[in-house]
Amino acid sequence: MKKTLLLTCLILVTNFVLGQDRLFLKNGTVVSGKITSINKKVARIKLDKTGKIKRFTERDIERAMIQIDDKEVEFKYGKVPFLGEVLLGKLYDGRADLYVAQTYVAGHKDNNDFLGYKMGGTQSMYYVQKDSEEQLFDLNYDGAIFNKFHNRVSKYFKDCPSLSKRIKNKELTSGNIVEIIEIYDSCE
């Protein structure tokens, strides 16, 4: 009975500790809670102890460990095209690494919209980096007429002809980013 109770308590404590987000600050402090938002260089975390939301910036944060889909993802600062230095999470590690950054897009007035206002919100931005590269490649941009996703990304993955062809033929789109990276990783 004592062993069962001890095991149950251990599992509950482990789930509580591992099931939360953590900010590792430059001063050595670890802040635990739930990350409520990340916007470029700023992270907001709802503190476990008080329930208050506290804001930290690149001056404070060394790295972050964030739960995404039951997986702990490490976020560090990195330079990405167009946004500059941002808090960036590594979602996939392979021949090509997949990264995500989040940015807040403000709402705006739009006369074409039924309500006359478009809501803003957090947008996930995806980047990839092959082992041989120094810079991240932007997977987000989709030009109006030129430089479409399927054209840019199929050229980027031209060293895997079967994948490049599937992207070019629009079998794989921006909604299949993780699958694209997994296919590239297994490409001969």
- Give the radius of gyration: 20 Å
Largest sheet: 10 strands, antiparallel
From the spread of the alpha carbons, the general shape counts as elongated
Helical residue percent band: 10-25%
Return residue spans where pLDDT drops below 50 for at least 5 consecutive residues: 1-18
What order do the strands of the largest sheet run in, or round the barrel if closed? 4-3-2-1-5-6-7-8-11-12
Number of helices: 4
Kindly, what is the distance between the CA atoms of the first and last residues, rounded to a whole number of angstroms? Answer: 54 Å
Strand content: 35-45%
Series of secondary-structure elements, N-terminal to C-terminal: HEEEEEEEEEEEEHHH
Structural class: alpha+beta
How many runs of DSSP E, i.e. beta strands?
12
Overall pLDDT score: 81
